Amino acid sequence: MSNADPSPVPAPEISPEWLAEFEAAAARPLALRMRYAFVRTYKPVLDDARFRSWDSMSDYRQWCESSLPGWLGYHR
Predict the structure, then answer these.
(1) pLDDT bracket for residue 3 (50, 70, 90)
(2) What pTM, to 2 d.p., does this model score?
């Protein structure tokens, strides 16, 4: 015996504008779609050095708490 509802749920209506944008995006070459897929956002302090390393996870966490703005989400 199945618990599935036998009546199908209608798909939500997609606006013609959204459908046109989707079809235009799908027609672009993959390289171009990948270029537009990611938004680069400057992250203060994190993006200011090429790399960083710590001796322990607790050192890293302490650095995050003392050096990064809270809105970046790296605080406890």
Answers:
(1) low
(2) 0.50
